[in-house]
Design a protein that fits this description.
about 65% helix, about 130 residues, mainly alpha, 4 helices
């Protein structure tokens, strides 16, 4: 029976609360804003308007990229048949391929930017 732990007895009667006005004010006062906190608040404030403007501009931007990409891709593929391997204009085929790839990549990156900026809970069909 030597291994029984006795708990201390609770003092009888109510304990006076040691409260002073300064400690209460310090506990209630919100923390001072920091630069990262202000930047996060500003980002949350500007994120939705930025998304809406970019989403509104999506049709002309992606449409222009597709308007450039598809004919350039067709010219790239057709260039292999129309220009022989010894033609001095063979380099133009690769220019068409590069323009097509760049326009398609630009449209893809624009859609990726829109998906990253989209508000949470919003499902958009790009």
């Amino acid at each position: 029976m030597g291994n029984i732990v006795k708990f201390p007895k609770r003092p009888e009667g109510p304990q006076p609360a040691e409260l002073d006005a300064d400690s209460l004010k310090a506990a209630i006062r919100p923390p001072r804003p920091t630069l990262p906190g202000l930047l996060a608040w500003l980002w949350r404030l500007l994120r939705l308007p930025l998304f809406l403007v970019l989403y509104w501009l999506r049709l002309p931007i992606v449409g222009l990229c597709n308007l450039v990409s598809v004919p350039a891709l067709l010219a790239f593929l057709a260039g292999f048949f129309f220009f022989g391997s010894d033609s001095p204009h063979r380099h133009i085929v690769w220019v068409f391929g590069g323009v097509s790839f760049t326009a398609a990549a630009l449209a893809w990156f624009y859609d990726s930017l829109l998906l990253a900026l989209a508000p949470e809970g919003v499902v958009i069909g790009l």
